[in-house]
Amino acid sequence: MRLVNISDLKARLSAHIQMVREGEEVLVCDRNKPVARLVPCLLEDQPERERQLIASGILTPPIKKRTSPVSWPEPPGAIPDEVIEQIWREERENR
What we know:
Order of helices and strands: EHHEEHH
Strand content: 15-25%
Radius of gyration: 25 Å
Largest sheet: 3 strands, mixed
Helix content: 25-40%
Number of helices: 4
Number of strands: 3
Distance between the termini: 66 Å
CATH architecture of the domain at 1-62: 3-Layer(aba) Sandwich
Shape: elongated
């Protein structure tokens, strides 16, 4: 990660943006105190609608991709679908 003060960033913005395009992160400092970070924007994997939301600032993409799908545990007290369907049928019959 490259450190850059605001004055240097302003003076050589194009060069710093090119570094970010090439995959490097740039930590922006104000009098040697970090205030922002410029990171590459990898949107190739995103659907078009998500790209539009990201570009407009409504959606923020995750910094890291999840390595594997998460398998969530069953919540305690989960009721099987068959039981719920039976309850719904009984409620409809009683109306």
